[in-house]
Input
Amino acid sequence: MDNEILGLINLQPEQDYLDELTYFRSGGSVPFMGRYRLIDFAITSMNNSGVNVIGVFAGNKFRSLLDHLNRKEDFGIEGRQSKIFVLPPDWNDPTDVSEGDLKHFHNHSDLFSRFKGNHVLISGSQFISNTDYSEAVEEHIKNDRDVTFVAEKVETPPEGPILRLITEGDQVAGFTHDQENPHLYTGVYIIKKTVLMNIVTFCINNYKPSFFHNGIREKLEEYNTGFFDITAKTHYFHSIETYFNNSMALLEKDRYRKFFFGKNKVKTKVSTRPPTLYKKDSNVKKSIVANGVTVEGKVERSIIGRNVKIGKGAVIKNSIIFANCTIEPDVHLENVILDKDVRITEGRQLMGSEEKPYVLAKRTEI
Output
């Protein structure tokens, strides 16, 4: 399968959905569980599936992606022919009328034309799972599908703007936001390369801005479609609240181990920071603490990123602290998310709620 499938991670539609956390980065670059980024799960699942050439449509906030993805070996992408391409929208053709994610498909069409395989596995980063798409790809090829959508059937349909599949037999008849529909669309699909390139041409010629919505969703009846339901544990992100709740849910020890260290290990950029330093008066319970952290205070049911400093007498509960933050002595944080490089000065108290956590953007001091 290695030579048959090109991987593509499309971050263009995911620029701002996590509010303060996406002020300075795309959704795929958002840190998760202390040491990962959301894009790591798409890369890991593709790598699990034998895909070793991956393009990333980075949108207009790609600096952190360039740093995070600069060593393909960290993600198990090995070999001379293996690649991870970060592809910003860099074509300044004055005749180009494309918009939205179509601009990326159009500007980087040589990625598809040069790839010798016949199919493309496309994902975003708002859905994460440690899974393997090999069976989905095999069914797609066996049944000669134009497009195969990867989905999940759940017992209790979640609330929120997650697209759901409308199916007729083994075909996909449409998409819906009906909250009662339990057939969730993951945002992952496999498409024939020739179909993909024809869609780009159609959208350009007809001034359509969206590859997926205008080129696939609105023309669904023209394609031979199918779906594949995965069974792996999944998480969906569409707001700060879902980001917070998914993070807190994974603090349960067995759930964390199964998700990150199950059949396949979720891979991320390797860090060389020293181990965590727990000082004499520190007290840490039910938390994830990354390396490079210094703890003098109390941490309970929280996620602490790399190189964070927690001062004496500080209390952190039900919170997510990104890398390089400084929490000075006697600070109290509860139901809070701090982005990178935030400083909370001595004695300050910040409290949100589980329904609406208090969020501070990158490089804030308060």
